[in-house]
Amino acid sequence: MSKQAERAARIGRIARIGDAVAKASEAFVAQRRSDLDAQQQRLSVVENYCRDYARLTEDREVAAQSVAVWRSYREFSGWLSQMSVAQRHEVAQAQFLLEAAADEAAQKRNFAKALAKAAGRAETAARKEADRAEQQALDALGRSIPPHLAL
């Protein structure tokens, strides 16, 4: 095996590793996207519950229940609001992590593409070298055939 062919094989292996790393990074992006979707869904549930509970609290206030009951409704409503704010933070963090993972995956994919191009160029160079060597061998063989045996 020629040096060019060895180099092409080595770069080909590196390109396959680069592709595997890029695929793993892309799978991580998919996981981050799933995490974001889950956090957004939780936020939606909390916000819907906050709205429903606020309506319920208003209805109960109109019904003129005791101050203690009214206070407990308000405290629980405050807790729900805090939960909503905390969930918004979770969504923002999940979005940030998704964007960071997507950027990293794009960089790794670009690197894998560059490795694949380098591997392709190395394979082309190895083929050209092999073709030249074969042509030289054929030329040498042609020169070694006595003229009376030549076609």
| Mean pLDDT over the residues | 89
Task: Quote the distance from N terminus to C terminus.
Answer: 33 Å
Can you write the helix and strand succession as a string?
HH
For the report, how would you describe the main beta sheet?
none
Could you walk me through the main structural features you see in this protein, from its secondary elements to its overall organization?
There is one protein chain. The chain is mostly helical and 151 residues long. It is built from 2 helices and no strands. The protein is rod-shaped. The two termini are 33 Å apart.
Task: Give a quick summary of the entry.
With 151 residues, the protein is an all-alpha fold. The protein is 91% helix and 0% strand.
Ordered list of secondary-structure elements with their pairings:
Layout: H1 3-62, H2 67-144
Helix pairs in contact: 1-2
Output the keywords.
151 residues, mainly alpha, Helix Hairpins
